[in-house]
């Protein structure tokens, strides 16, 4: 006999929000946990949860000398990344999920998952996490409640979102909220011993856009389980944004100040593991320029009363790719992590109680790798999974901009699109106008990375770096972007200018043509000059590309020929893209905005004219 829900903690519910209470009751009845805990977000709670996770073997406490109040976690080796094949947009009409999402009818998905959820929290604690994406002080705070049976998720949500008792209070008795249900799908029979990373081989990451619900099952990995992030702030929010006339995007937001003290805000959409966190925290290598961080992964953009597009970072933490993060590539991330209060997942543990990963610097002589095995530099294996992550509070970032806290967001001057391309795509290109910029975004291409399960290094189209995150038909999404270009008062001059960047082009020997990281400030400088009506460029068939002299390359140590190669527009390579783009566009049938076909035709004509 399972205990009635009242004895599982509902009687002590710290809210009188009747819809929330009813939902918590319903989920507890379905999933039959041993107890229900309302998460308050306090330090005592963090202490208790992390102690429990350490006792369970899920977390290992790091040496506070290196990383105070920080932990090392290893997942099940099959639960390491987002699972795009198992991610569904369950719109009522299949056409609304479009050709780029997996779809299942909402009632069918709910039937399937209800069967999985039945009794799935047996032997475990069900946590109720009230959270808000963006500041609680916002005019209309964007509430969510995640129910989960994973204490790792609770701890991570405390880092990644504003959550707990204050948020619950802010919800009052009747605030709307996104219902986000998560289970690792690993019930425990009486007396059954737990494993350090319980999860299920059956996984579903489902979204119900019409009812703004998220149902996730079977995975503990962050992208699948921290439902405020990709699931809410991108997939569900993109649908809200379509309906309400704003944009929810997979973008970093940075503040750049020139030596003269002029401020520009730049947003950038690059696919997962293609450089957003690095660019957001960049240390300029050019004298007098300053970069501050507003966001590293998600931007919500709305028009302000002044007709400009304002971007807000709805998150509270950084969930960054660990490998490649080091003192030479991203010192600000390293400084953020050294302040502690972080969870590291699937990196290596050093013998002195610190973490290490490839790209951090000198390897330790011995460590425990992400699979729990002995590791030495001669092991011939990577110590850390390619998608291993750090989860750390954003307010520890030493260059966090004050504007991060402003519910209004920051007015965006430039939007960057970019991907990981060995060939073809030059270092930077400026779009001819908004619609051309939307075309650039819609045809964005990148080689796949370890951030999602599947093959790595294959070129795929990843529109606006949102392929795995658009919560509706991507053709409609392109149309929405076109509509946004009309602005509030039709004044195109107030819109951000759009650029396309590629830090990943290589020479014939496979070496990166551009040093990247802090040196990307040189590209940002050119972009700022273009915004200010300066900065020399040549008009090419694909847009405006800097002349070799226009980039500030002082002290960079590249030859002019190398810079020209990085900037080169190779007509034959671009011609070879055309059939791929045609094929891509054809996927969308009638949904593809005609102006994007017109852009492709115009590009073909310009290439033919060469
Ligand atoms: P998600 O957090 O998954 O959305 O990805 P992200 O876009 O934030 O990626 P991140 O900044 O963490 O970069 C991931 C990888 O790109 C790491 O391996 C970095 O070393 C590499 N990278 C980032 N910036 C540059 C760059 O300017 N040049 C080169 N060559 N590599 C870079
Ligand atoms: Mn991301
Ligand atoms: Mn990132």
UniProtKB/TrEMBL annotation:
Pathways per UniProt: Carbohydrate biosynthesis; gluconeogenesis
The organism of origin for this protein: Polymorphospora lycopeni
Subunit structure: Monomer.
Catalytic site: 274
Cofactor list: Mn(2+)
Cellular location(s): Cytoplasm
Record's protein name: Phosphoenolpyruvate carboxykinase [GTP]
Catalytic activities: oxaloacetate + GTP = phosphoenolpyruvate + GDP + CO2
Family: Belongs to the phosphoenolpyruvate carboxykinase [GTP] family.
Gene name tied to this protein: pckG
Domain named Phosphoenolpyruvate carboxykinase C-terminal P-loop: residues: 246-606
UniProt signal peptide: none
One Pfam assignment: PEPCK_GTP
EC number annotated for this UniProt entry: 4.1.1.32
Cofactor note as given: Binds 1 Mn(2+) ion per subunit.
Binding locations of Mn(2+): 230, 250, 297
Phosphoenolpyruvate carboxykinase GTP-utilising N-terminal domain ranges (all copies): 23-242
């Amino acid at each position: 006999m399972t205990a009635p829900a009242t004895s599982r903690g509902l009687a002590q519910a710290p809210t009188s929000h009747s819809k929330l209470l009813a939902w918590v009751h319903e989920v507890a009845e379905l999933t039959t946990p041993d107890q229900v805990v309302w998460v308050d977000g306090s330090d005592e709670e963090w202490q208790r949860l992390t102690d429990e996770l350490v006792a369970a073997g899920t977390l290992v406490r790091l040496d506070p000398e290196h990383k105070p109040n920080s932990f090392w976690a290893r997942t099940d080796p099959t639960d390491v990344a987002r699972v795009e094949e198992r991610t569904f947009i369950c719109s009522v009409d299949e056409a609304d999920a479009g050709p780029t999402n997996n779809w299942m009818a909402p009632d069918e998905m709910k039937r399937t998952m209800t069967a999985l959820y039945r009794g799935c929290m047996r032997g475990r604690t069900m946590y109720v996490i009230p959270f808000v994406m963006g500041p609680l002080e916002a005019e209309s705070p964007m509430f969510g409640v995640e129910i989960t049976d994973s204490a790792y998720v609770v701890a991570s949500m405390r880092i990644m979102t504003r959550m707990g008792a204050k948020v619950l209070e802010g919800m009052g008795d009747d605030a709307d909220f996104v219902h986000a249900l998560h289970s690792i799908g690993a019930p425990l029979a009486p007396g059954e011993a737990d494993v350090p990373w319980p999860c299920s081989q059956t996984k579903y990451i489902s979204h119900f856009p019409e009812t703004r619900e998220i149902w996730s099952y079977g995975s503990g990995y962050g992208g699948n389980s921290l439902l405020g992030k990709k699931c809410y702030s991108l997939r569900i929010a993109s649908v809200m944004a379509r309906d309400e006339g704003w944009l929810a995007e997979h973008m970093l937001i940075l503040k750049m100040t020139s030596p003269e003290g002029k401020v520009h805000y730049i947003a950038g959409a690059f696919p997962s593991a293609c450089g957003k966190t690095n660019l957001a925290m960049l240390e300029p290598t050019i004298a007098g320029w300053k970069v501050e961080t507003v966001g590293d992964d998600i931007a919500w953009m709305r028009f302000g009363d002044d007709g400009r597009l304002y971007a807000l970072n709805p998150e509270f933490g950084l969930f960054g790719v660990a490998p490649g993060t080091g003192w030479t590539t991203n010192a600000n991330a390293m400084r953020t992590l050294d302040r502690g209060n972080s969870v590291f997942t699937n990196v290596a543990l050093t013998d002195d109680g610190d973490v290490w990963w490839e790209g951090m610097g000198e390897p330790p002589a011995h460590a425990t790798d992400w699979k729990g095995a002995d590791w030495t530099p001669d092991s011939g294996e990577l110590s850390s999974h390619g998608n291993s992550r750090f989860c750390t509070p954003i307010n520890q970032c030493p260059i966090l901009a004050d504007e991060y806290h402003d519910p209004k967001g920051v007015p965006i001057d430039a939007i960057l699109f970019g991907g990981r391309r060995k060939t073809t795509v030059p270092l930077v290109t400026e779009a001819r106008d908004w619609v051309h910029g939307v075309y650039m975004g819609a045809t964005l291409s990148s080689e796949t990375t370890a951030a999602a399960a599947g093959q790595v290094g294959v070129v795929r189209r990843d529109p606006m770096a949102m392929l795995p995150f658009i919560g509706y038909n991507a053709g409609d999404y392109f149309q929405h972007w076109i509509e946004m270009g009309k602005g509030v008062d039709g004044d195109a001059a107030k819109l951000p200018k759009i650029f396309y960047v590629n830090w990943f082009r290589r020479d014939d020997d496979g070496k990166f043509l551009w040093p990247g990281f802090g040196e990307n400030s040189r590209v940002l400088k050119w972009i700022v000059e273009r915004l200010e009506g300066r900065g020399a460029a040549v008009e090419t068939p694909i847009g405006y590309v800097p002349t070799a002299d226009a980039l500030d390359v002082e002290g960079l140590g590249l030859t002019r020929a190398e810079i020209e190669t990085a900037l080169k527009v190779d007509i034959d390579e671009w011609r070879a893209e055309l059939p791929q783009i045609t094929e891509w566009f054809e996927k969308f049938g009638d949904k593809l905005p005609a102006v994007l076909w017109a852009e492709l035709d115009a590009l073909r004509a310009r290439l033919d004219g060469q």
